[in-house]
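Methods: holo model generation. Sequences were used as deposited, without trimming of termini or removal of tags, and paired with ligand SMILES retrieved from the corresponding compound records. Each pair was processed once, and we did not select among multiple samples. The sequence and fe (ii) ion SMILES for this entry were:
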Amino acid sequence: MNAKDISLKEKEVKPIVDQLNDLLANYHIHYQKLRGCHWNVKGSHFFTLHIKFEELYTNAQQTIDDLAERILTLGKPPHSTFTDYIKVSTIKEINTIGMKDTDMVNAIMDDFSNLIEMEREIMKTTSEAGDDGTNDLINSFMQFKEKNNWMLRSFCGKN
Ligand SMILES: [Fe+2]
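and the model returned the structure below.
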């Protein structure tokens, strides 16, 4: 597909797709981290956090699919191997075995901060390119994490 077909400029779409592919890679590492937290959480908050982590990874899974399909909509292939995800992602894997529950929550909040920062950068690029569709999509991902950052902060008793 040509960017022209959806009234965008090829030259301006290229950097957007590159940024979306970077975000996709980061999201995969984040997703697997959430699954690790869901499986390995222990302690008196097990029932609360086990369910919360499931809610978050279910959302991340949908976000990953939406992101990949937006990349295809813009006419390029999304990264689809873990080799690429690990190579590209700035968010790093962690070992969740034996990790304290509050450390898990803090690790997820760190990922949220990093992902939100990337998304704000993407929204600058999409805004300049007039790509309102991608802008709107990324904005919805960001708002979900902003709200969940508040809830996880509250869980940890932070302001
Ligand atoms: Fe499960």
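The chain has a mean pLDDT of 96.
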